[in-house]
Design brief:
The protein is an alpha+beta fold and about 260 residues long. It has one domain (about 25-230): outer membrane lipoprotein receptor (LolB), chain A (Clam). It is built from five helices and twelve strands. α2 packs antiparallel against α3. Mean pLDDT is about 90; it is low at about 1-20.
């Protein structure tokens, strides 16, 4: 009996070792993301006692004539050292109305991350102005949970965080892609972030396809056009520009600096 049990344990260990040896870790390639904005919920959140007279009417008109979700598509090209996140050339259903320029709806950023120097370069479009924001990579204090879900064929683990002191973020990452990156400026987990949701802001980014393929260095070049500035300078510039906008300015400001 002891011999049989020892043989079974040995076979199980050998089987596990062989399986582990054949697990493939994606270290470079391309990830396609789909961003969805629940416009009905987002517009309803804008309504308050000061603007109820016209915002309720705006909300009712939008709900009667427009789809609930606005969809845009983006691509993250990555290697172990760098990544570049930008809008996809085609795809999505961007709004064709007065909310087409709202920063929470559109893809306003081109984001380059250097994982060696822990630096980020963002080409950010703020209405007619283009900024080139260079700074250290954002540090996010994630709390990893036991919850899992499958995204684009990868088993992912959930993590939660607060950014900008008040924005609740839910992320799902896969350690089978051992690159600490993700869409937009979300990063810092022990694997690639394939899903992000801002539940209170009604926005999410989820991967739809991961392609494991060699990436040319030329595909990861950081953006170079725009007014050079850092994160602190951008916030000060926008706060000054939006000073006369009242409460509405805070909505724009949050999404421009997110």
């Amino acid at each position: 009996m002891k011999i049989i049990l020892s043989t079974l344990v040995l076979n199980l260990l050998l089987s596990f070792q062989m399986t582990a040896q054949h697990v493939r870790f994606t270290q470079q390639g391309e990830i396609q993301y789909e961003k969805k904005v629940n416009m009905f919920a987002l517009l309803r959140s804008f309504i308050n006692k000061d603007n109820e007279a016209y915002m309720q009417r705006t909300y009712d008109q939008y709900r009667a004539s427009q789809p609930q979700f606005v969809t845009t598509k983006s691509v993250l090209t990555f290697s172990r050292e760098e990544s570049l996140f930008k809008a996809a050339e085609t795809g999505g259903t961007p709004p064709q109305n007065s909310f087409a320029f709202f920063p929470g709806v559109n893809q306003i950023n081109v984001v380059h991350n250097n994982y060696t120097t822990h630096s980020t370069t963002i080409q950010k479009t703020v209405f007619e102005q283009v900024f080139l924001v260079k700074d250290n990579t954002r540090k996010i204090k994630w709390k990893i949970t036991d919850e899992t879900r499958e995204i684009a064929g990868y088993q992912c683990r959930r993590a939660n965080a607060l950014v900008m002191d008040s924005i609740y973020v839910v992320a799902f990452y896969s350690d089978k892609i051992p690159v600490s990156g993700g869409p937009e400026t979300f990063s810092g987990l022990p694997g690639m972030i394939l899903g992000v949701a801002l539940p209170h802001d009604h926005i999410s980014w989820f991967a739809t396809k991961v392609t494991d393929t060699p990436v040319a260095k030329t595909s990861l070049q950081a953006p170079a056009k725009g007014k050079a500035i850092d994160n602190t300078g951008l916030k000060e510039t926008l706060q000054k520009a939006f000073k006369q906008w009242g409460q509405q300015a805070q909505l724009y400001f949050k999404f421009f600096v997110l």
